[in-house]
Each structure stands twice: as structure tokens, then as C-alpha cells.
Amino acid sequence: MSPRVAEVTPNADYTVTIVFTNGERRIFDVKPYLDKGFFKDLRDAALFRSVKPFLGSIQWQGGQDFCPDTLYADSVPTR
Known about the structure:
The structure is a single chain. The protein has about 80 residues and is mainly beta. The protein has a single domain (about 5-75), classed as NE0471-like N-terminal domain (NE0471 N-terminal domain-like, 2-Layer Sandwich). It has two helices and seven strands, in the order E-E-E-H-E-E-E-H-E. It has helices at about 45-50, 70-75; strands spanning about 5-10, 15-20, 25-30, 50-55, 55-60, 65, 75. A four-stranded antiparallel sheet has the order 1-2-3-7. The longest helix is centred in the last third of the chain and has 6 residues, at about 70-75.
């Protein structure tokens, strides 16, 4: 099982910076999902900025979310 989300910060380039419970800071790119289903709504910058940690993962005001394992596996460490 991957670490869970402790903090999340939306970035202007449709990525999110995530701090995981193990202390790692990583970047997850949401852009590949913005043409899919209910993730299309996240193209709205105000909605995208509404992201918050939720039950070890992240969730937007519109209910969009990702599995914490996906967030960890598909993110890259920050420098």
C-alpha cells in the first residue's frame, strides 16, 4: 500500500503538489485526465483550485478524486 496524502496544493499548470504521509513531496499531472468523463470539469481553473486532501487521497468540489495508489505511482518527486 502506498503512503496517503497529507497535503495537496494545486498548481497553475494543472498539476498538484502532494505531500504524502511518509514526508515525500511529489507532483501529479492531472492534464492527461482533463479530456475524460467528469474530469473535464476540472478545466475550470476555479474548480481545479478547490482540491483538498480527502480520506488519504484528494478530492475536488465536484467530487472528482483519484486513488491514493495512483497518485503515488504516477507522480514524480519534486526537487
